[in-house]
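Quick question: what would this complex look like in 3D?
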Amino acid sequence: MERESALEKLVDRRTVLKAGAVAGAAAFIAACGTPGASSSASPSGNAEQSPSDVLNFANWTYYIDVDEGVDTATAETSESLRRFKAEYGTSVNYQEVLLDNDEFFGTIKAPLEAGQDTGWDIVVPTTWMAKKIIDLGWAEKLDKSHMPNFVANLADEFKGRAADPTNDYLAPWQSLMTGLGVNTAKTARFTSVNGLWASGLKGKVVLLTELRDTVGLVMLGNGADPSAPTRATFDAAIDTLQEAITSEQVRKLAGNGYTELLISEAAFAAIAWSGDVGIIQADKPELEFIVPDEGGMYATDNMLIPKGAQHKYTAELWIDFYYQPEIAAVVEAYVQYICPVKGADVEITKIDAALGSNPLIFPDAATKSRLKVWGDVSAEDQAYFDEEFSAIVEGVGA
Amino acid sequence: MGLIRRHPALVPLLLLLPGITWLGSFYLAPNLQMFASSFWSGSLENGFAFSLGNWVNYPNALGTYQEQYLRSIQYGFAATLICFAIAFPLAYFIAFRSGRARSILLFLVVAPFFTSYLLRTIGWRTILGDESIVLGPLKSVGLIDPSARILDTPVSVVAGIAYNFVPFMILPIYVSLEKIDRRLLEAAQDLYASSWGAFRRVTLPLAAPGIFAGSLLTFIPAIGDFVNAELLGNPGTTMIGNVIQRQFLVVRDYPTAAALSFMLMLLILIGVTIYGRLLGTEELTSKAI
């Protein structure tokens, strides 16, 4: 096994991932408490028309650019946030507190229900969760009159989505593919979801605790269609999962912390998110992201302004700022997910020529056609799915 | 001032006031609220409704999660035993044999608290990893199967709990040992007790309050712990704390979560009462506290 010197590891910005579980766990604890947002005295609402001093931004881990050798993004350690501050004087209070959609929703639900400010000006839920927040009436409507870049540069695939047909609430931040992460130095490369159940990988597989990603991929492996899930196809996938867990084929179900298992080689294969694999590859080129033969999952995380946010206007300025291709490219060159901003693929080549044609960031049409988005189901069915999947995570069915 | 002079009986009440206010607002009120929510039914989207008929939440939750309760008790028990096995000799050494190194040793016992609980737990992922300093050499000389692992098994969870709570066992035992009047031991030896006899008949009984306090301080948080099972375990090591955390924050089935929490409290209360009865008298309990 190749070992670098400790010093080398220290200076490589991508070693931040080695602290993956640390940051993940920290975010997890943060998510358990009340948001660590700072507040300013400025009154809420649309009357505010000058940029505020702070902007409270809740995001997922490794989801914005940070400087070399720095672990966490702040208004000072992230190029994109620094440029925003230079332009508007706003110091972004950037917090990596999103680890799980449901869990984060649990932390903002009480103030939203009571009609209070959540402490956040921008949150980044996945589309299905964003839809739930919009349906509950807990999202602020974007004032597109001061968002020309957003209007001009939003990629066409995001226009008129079912969750937000008029693009009034959601500004996509990143999209991600869910597929297989395979350590090809430790196990033979495989391209089928069912390769995860090979006997050689016993105890070396890690799966995600996100229902739509894990069950979606297992459904694809079973030959079912996760864009139109039914109780029957769902139950079949749960059975597959249960068997894999009981037989200890699966070592662990993890949230964002799954990357730590891949890096430490506690796991050789995972159900993984494309961008994570992209970042780990810098240190561990033998790790490969594979869109399975049966297809992969696709999801989008969206910026949303929660109802009653203190700095709505500034939040809109940030969204619009991000929708400039050169800013999106700065973020993308680091996070390596799929970019929703038109023109970023050209801009990114100025940072690194190879990234413009990186299939993980800009997947081609053929790959995209093999990706499925988890289908909408009735509230009863979704509750049933949640309950069944929870039982898997809690180890109740075993 | 005049009021106090005229009614001296008010003094204890006034002294208790901050404590009572604290307990009332941050312990009693949330607990009552949680107790009420254990009788809810409904969902987050459609709202919750209170009804005494929802007492079935309790048997339902118990029926689903009895395995996790049982596992929590087992893990808590195992971790407490391990803590005791580590803590007693160490506390004994510090109290009787450490000489001038005593304060340094005591500091070292507490030193890990200067690092976050989470970081220390995550550290165990490195220590117990599949190719780690523990397993790596054993595997390379062929003593154990190459696919053997400790991490993400019950062993790593119990080890993590024991590691995290061992200072809570060491300190009370140390305090009770340190308080022992050495002349009692000398007297025992003057009366022809062997060292073992003096230990068994003098030291151990006098250390009992510390052992009692230490085992409670270890067992109670251990049984409700979820961090170790989350970070060092797998779906088969889920403890009741993980279930409660998930039910509250992810599934948001507040009634079930509240019922589970109350049953856990009740379980601990009953367990501690029995333990107190078995190990000693009320005097012992009061000494321990």
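Answer marked as accepted. Chain A is about 35% helix and 15% strand.
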